[in-house]
Amino acid sequence: MDGTVLVADDDRTIRTVLTQALTRAGCKVHATSSLTTLMRWVAEGKGDVVISDVMMPDGNGLEMLPKIAQDRPGLPVIVISAQNTIMTAIQAAEAEAYDYLPKPFDLPDLMKRTARALESRRRVAPSAPVDAGAERPDDLPLVGRTPAMQSLYRLVARVMNTDLPVLISGESGTGKSLIARAIHDFSDRRTLPFVTVTATDLQDIEGPARVLARAKGGSVLFDEIGDIDLESQARIVRMMDSPGDHVPRFMATSQSNLSQAMEKGRMRQDLYYRLGGATIEVPSLRERVDDIPLLAEHFLLRSEKDGAPKRRLSRDALELMRAYSWPGNVRQLENAIRRLVLTSRADEITRSEVESVLGNQPEMEPVLGGGNDTEKLSASVNRHLRRYFDLHGNMLPPPGLYGRILREVEGPLLEIALEATGGNQAKCADLLGINRNTLRKKITDLDIRVTRRRKLM
């Protein structure tokens, strides 16, 4: 790489790591913990790429993007943030950041994105003005740090201000309707109506006209499109082909496999392809178990704001919640947390209390294990991965599979290795054949508790 990179982050470790990595790659680096200093460098014409955190001691990095675009049109800005919600991704897209990465980020991935930014030096058009009077949600219940959710956030941000129809698929309780609402509430149509349509709204021939009259060019969501009968589906096709003077944004949700429904004659082919301008698959909760602690904390805080007692989950309770399959997904988790908040006898919610709420619900099968004692590890991995793909039928699993599988393997491996070496990180790093700093980072990223235990060897 060749160029000058401006780095702004209040974390000294991140500044050091990025400075060293970028310098080794051939770049010049200016690093600061101050947005004021960053903006001065930008105004002075320094830098070919900016890498900036969002929450800084003297301001918000996202709020600086319009000023950077004004002072230095075409200067790429890569936003990195620990505020890993859909709002951050959407705000970064609205401010026309060159790229957005959640923390903790993958350093090689950030280096590749920086290289692309240096090569492109693309000219970014000024952002469209935002209606300050438009109502916007302050607390969308769409949170998650896992790769699957971050990919979803970026996809939502990309399709937000297009006119493409959007098909949102996923299991019951994953938040499909929330995704549709977020697309509307953060789009240019945010001041116009958001109309949810069910099969009942389309039962008579005048139904589509009434829907369009209510929408007034806003957004129309067909809730569970797979449950709508064929006659009503035909009316939707005609509605989409002749929407009148005020063309709305069309979206649909579905928890059923629409391609299979189409093959069985329950879904019109012409409607299926009209709605599939952009397809968003919302991952199930069992596909992003690492988000369970974050979601649980979110729902605990929400309950507290609503006047419920302040509660926290014990480590054992949280581990049990991570082990369950959650057939009702995020909606079931939210209901479970609400019940636990009200029924818990103390400030800390115990494992036994979680067991009483979840009942006899089956636990998730781990990614590894479950075979016979003589089965090779590779064969066990192969068997479980094939089963995981089979669960998705004709659809692919959500993006980020490689990282999810590695995390499933790394966690138990590090825990057992640390236990075997009595918690001695130097010995553990040597045992694993990795750098000690790498081990420390993985312990932090995977939230592994390090205790001095009896050595196993």
Question: How would you describe this protein?
Answer:
This protein is an alpha/beta fold and 457 residues long. It contains 19 helices and 14 strands. The protein has helices at 12-24, 35-43, 65-71, 86-94, 107-120, 147-159, 176-185, 207-215, 230-241, 258-263, 269-275, 292-305, 315-323, 329-343, 351-358, 377-390, 401-420, 425-432, 436-445; strands spanning 4-8, 28-32, 49-53, 55-56, 59-60, 77-81, 99-102, 166-169, 194-197, 219-222, 249-254, 278-281, 312-313, 348-349. A five-stranded parallel β-sheet has the order 2-1-3-6-7, with helices on both faces. Helix 4 links the parallel strand 6 and strand 7 (99-102). Helix 4 (86-94) packs parallel to helix 6 (147-159), helix 13 runs parallel beside helix 15 and helix 17 (401-420) crosses helix 18. The relative contact order is 0.07.
What distance lies between the first and last C-alpha atoms, to the nearest angstrom?
Answer: 46 Å
Strand order of the largest sheet: 2-1-3-6-7
Strand content: 5-15%
Query: Low-confidence spans: pLDDT under 50, at least 5 residues?
Result: 122-140, 361-374, 453-457
Number of helices: 19
Q: Helix content range of the residues, please?
A: 40-55%
Largest sheet: 5 strands, parallel
What is the average per-residue confidence, as pLDDT, rounded to a whole number?
82
Number of strands: 14
- As a whole number of angstroms, the C-alpha radius of gyration is 25 Å
Shape: globular
| Helix/strand structural class | alpha/beta
